[in-house]
Amino acid sequence: MAQAISKTAEKPEKRLSFIKPYLKNSFLSNLKILVVITILDLLSFPLTLISMTYDIKTSVKGQEDISVITMFFFVMAIVFTALTVLAGIIIVMNNFSYLYKKQNTDMYLALPLKTSQRFLCDYFSGLVMYLAPFLLSGGITAIVSVVTRALLPSMREEFYGLNFTEMIIRAYLMVAAAMVMFYTLSVLVSAICGSIFETIMYNIMINGIIPMLIVVLTVVIYSGTFGINMMNIMLPILLRTSPLGAAIGFCLKMDDFNTAEGNLFFDGSEAAGLVLWLLAVTAVYGAAAYLLYRKRKAEDVSKPFVYKAFYYVFMAALMLGMTVFMLIDEDLILPLVVAMVVVYLIFEVVNNRGFKKFWVSLIRCAVTVAACITFTFVCKYTEGFGVSKRVPDANDVKSVSINYIPSLADETPDEQITFTDEESVKAVIEAHRSLIDKYNDLDRSFLSFDGHYYYGTYDVEISYALKGGETMERVYSLTSDEIFILNKLVEAPDFEKKFLDNIFSSGECDYPLEISDIINSEYYLESMEYNYLTRGHQDYEMEIMAEYAKDLAARTVDQINTPTEQPIAMINIHYYRYYIYPSDKNVIAKLDEMGIKLYPQNEIDQEFLEDSAVTLISYRKENAIHDYMYGSPKSKYVSVYGWNYYEDDDYETVTLPDEFVSDEGFRELMKVAQPYYITQEPVYKMFVGSELLFIPPQYTSTAKELWDKAVLAKKLLGNYGYEDDYYEEY
Amino acid sequence: MIELKQVTKTFGGDFTALDNVDLVIPKGTAFGLLGSNGAGKSTILRLLAGIYRQEGGEVIIDGEKVYDNPTIKSRVFFINDETIQYGNFTLKKLKNFYKGFYPNFSEELFEKLRSTVKLPLDKKINDFSKGMKRQAIVIIAIACQPDYLMLDEAFDGLDPTMRIIVKRMLVDAIIDRELTAVISSHNLKEINEVCDTVALLHQGKVLFSRDLDSVKGNIHKVQTAFNKDYTQEDFPELDILHFEKNQSVYHIIARGDEDTIRAGFAGKSPLFLDLIPLTLEEIFIYEMEVLGYGSGDLENG
Questions:
Q1: Domain that holds residue B296
Q2: For range B126-151, the mean pLDDT
Q3: For chain B, how many structural domains are there in total?
Q4: Looking at residue A180, what DSSP letter applies?
Q5: Interface test with A, best of B8, B97, B137, B184 (most A CBs within 10 A)
Q6: Which of A199, A595, B22, B199 would be a feasible disulfide site paired with B209, CB 3.0-4.6 Å?
Q7: Which residues of chain A carry a pLDDT beneath 50?
C-alpha cells in the first residue's frame, strides 16, 4: 500500500485532464451529424430572410409581397429546424451509447473518469454540438435582419413595438430553450432505458406522453367542472414541461396574433419568463437524469428498462389517456376497456420480449385499467373532487381580481381590477356563490362533456389571493343577475381610477371612442372625426372617460341597476357601452366643452320611428332568455339583460303598425324604456330599430295595454308587411 | 496490490456472480483467472477496472477503492473479450483517445510495438481482422503503461506467432515495469506460459489462489498396478480427484505433493508407481470434475 501511495505521489505532474480527450472524442463521434445539422440550420431561416429581403427590395413600394420561393424557403426552414431538433436524439444516443450498447460499456466505463465527470462531459459536449449550429443560424439571421432593416425602410417600422431583429432573437432563444429541454429529456430516457429499441421508441414517446398526460389529467379532473377554465390550468404547465407542449402552447398563445399581451413573439417579459421556466424544468429533468444515471449499473445495459417504474407510469398515462373517451360517452366503456387491455398487453409483450410471466402482465393490466377507469369516474362524479363548489370565506381573502366593467357587453374586459376592501370582496364572493347556487339547482342531465358555461353578458375571471398565499381562479359567464351583484363594486374605494386603468390598460384602442344616441343611431362623435383632431384620439378618450368615471362613481348601485332617468347617449369604447344619463354632469360638461351637445332621449325623431319597425316583446314569467350553451332548461331565476338579445321560443312578439308611433301609451313607454335595466321581475321589452329596450315593471300595465292593442290590430290588419319571425334573425 | 475483500456481485437480484470472494493479487504478478463459464472471472476483471460496482465487500487497488476513482483507474487498463467497440476508430485515433487518459502513455513504445505487429495507423479498425483488432488494443494498452492490466480472453483470435509476440510484450512489461497483469483465458496453455499465479473460480467462489508451481506440485497423476484389486475407498489417506482402472493399470489423480502421494500407496505394494505432473488444463478439468462440472455426463450420454 505504501508503495502505491508513493507511486501516486510520484506522478502528480503527469496527471492529465481527462475531460479534453473525452470531449474531443465526443466531437469526433458526432462530426457527421454536426455537419448535417449545421447545413440544415444555415439553409433554414437565414436563407428565408435573405429571400424575403430580395422580394421586398425588388417589389413595388407599398406593394411588398412575399414570393412563392420565399414561402418555399420558409416551409423548408420549418422542416429543417424540426429535423435539427430531432437530431438531438442522435447526438444523445451517440454520446451515451454505452448505456444501451453492451460493447461500448466496458470501453467507456473503464476510462478514468468519475461518474459525474463522464455524465457532464457527455451531456455538455453533446449539447454544445446540438445548439451551436442553431445559435449560429440565429446569429446569421439576426445579422441579416439588421442589414435588411438598414436597406429597406419598410422594415424599419416597429412591429407591435418591437423591431424585427428582436423578434428573431426572441424566437431563436425560445426554440433554443426548448431544444435544451428536448435534449435533456433524451438524456433522461437514455438513463432509464437500456436497449436501443426502447431508447429510440421512448425518446420519441416521452415528448408526446408529457403533454398528453397534462392534457389528460386536466381533462379527466376538470372537464365538466363548473367555473374551472381548463385552458388556464393546462396552458402554463403545458408550455413549461415539454418541448412539444411548449410548441402547442406557443401556437395556442398565438391565437390572437395581434394582441401583444401573452404573445410570446411580442411580449419580451413573457418570452423571457418562458425561457427561464423551460430552463428551470430542464434543470429538474437533468438532475433526475443524473441521479438515475449515477444509480444505474453497468450491467443494466441491454435491459429494456433499467427503471421499470418509468414504464409503469408511461402505461398508466397511456391508459388514462384512453379513458378520456369515456367522458364523451359512457356507453363507450366496454369497447374502451377492450381497447385498453389490447394496447396494454401489446406493450407488455414487446417489453417482456415475449409471453414470459404473462399472467403477471394480465394482473398488471387489470389493475392499471381498473385504476384509470375508477379515477376517471371519481373525478367525473365528484366534479374534480368538489373543486367547483368551493367559494372562499371573505375573511380568508386578501384581495380579489376580476375583469369587471359596469357595462353590458359580449366582450370580456382585458384587464382585471383588484379589490382589497371588505365590501368589494364580499360582493364578488356573493356573486360567485350565486353562480354556484344556481348551478347546483340545475337539472344536470343536459350537461355535456364540453362544459356548461352560462351564456350571459361576458366571461369573467375571478382570481382570489388568499391570506395563506394560495390563489384560486375561476372563470364564469355572468348573467345580469351577477352583474347586478357586482355593480356594488362601483362603490369600492378608488373605483374611479381602477375603472380608467382598466379601460386604458391595453394601450391604444383598436376602434376609437364613439358617442351616439340610443335609438336614432346618430353619432355625436364618430371615430373618423378624430382624423381632424390635432391631438391623438386617446387623449380625448381619456379626458372623456375620466369625467364619465366621476359620474359613474357618484351613482348609487340602484341608480346603476334600475335607472329612473333615461340615458341620453351612449359611449362605445372597447366594444363596451356606457350610458350617459342627464345627471352625469361631468361628462356632459366635458362634451359640451368639446362642442358636442347631447339632446334628451325622449326627443325621438318621428321620421326615424316611422321608418323603423317597432316590435313589442311579450311579458313573460321567466326573463332568462338564453341560459346555457346546450339545451334550454327552465331556470329558476330570472334575468333581464341588455342589448345582446338572444332568441328563445318561449315568448311572443308583435310588430306595431306605423300608426302606433303616435299612440300615447307608446310615446309614454318610449320615455321610460331603458337600454340597461336589471330586475328580477318579468317585464315587457321592445325592439326599436335595432335597439332592445326594457320597460321597467312599474309600466307593465301601460305595456300590456299597448300589447293588447297591437295584437288586436294585427288580427284586423294582418302582418302589415312584417313577418313575426323578423327579429329571430338577430 | 489488488485486494478483493468479501466481494459479492449479483446480477438481476437472482444470480450471484461472486459470492464473498476474497482474493489478493500481489504487485508485479502475472495472475491467471481460471474457471468454468459463468464462474465470475470477467466479473472480477470488470470490478477491478471500475466498471462494475459490487453489492458487498471492497475492491481495492493499492489501498484505494476502485469504483469511481479516476486516480486508480488511470493506472488500470482493461481489455475485454470483444473488439467491436473500437470499430469506428483508426489505430491512430484510438491511440490518441487513450493517450489522453493515461499519463504514462509512451509514443515511443507504441511505435515500437506497432512496428513489431505491423499494424496500419490510418485504417479503420473495422477493416482489421479479429486478430489485428486484438493486437491493436493490446499494443495501446501496453503503450499506456498502466500499473495494472486486465485482459479478458487475452489471446483470443491471435495466431500462434502473434500469441508469442503478445506474450513477450506482456512478459517484458511485467519484468520491466512491474506490471500486474490479471489474465482470464480459457486457453490454459497460455495462462500456464504467462502466469505465475492462478486462481480457480467456480460458481462465484474462489476454489484456490496459489502460485502456479504450487498448484502443479500439489496435484499428480498416478499410474500404478497392483497384485490385487482396489477401489477408491481403499486409499482413505489420499485426496483423490479421479480414480480409474483400465484392466490392471490404475489411473489416479490425487491432490498432494509427491511424497504424500507416494506415502499413500506405500502399504499397497504397487507393482510400479509413476507420478506424472499434470498440465494446467488437466488440473482444471479434474478440479472441475470434482465439483460436478465434468464432461462425464456428456460422455455417458
A1: 218-300
A2: 88
A3: 2
A4: H
A5: B97
A6: B199
A7: 1-13, 158, 160, 257-260, 443-456, 528, 531-532, 534, 620-649, 721-730
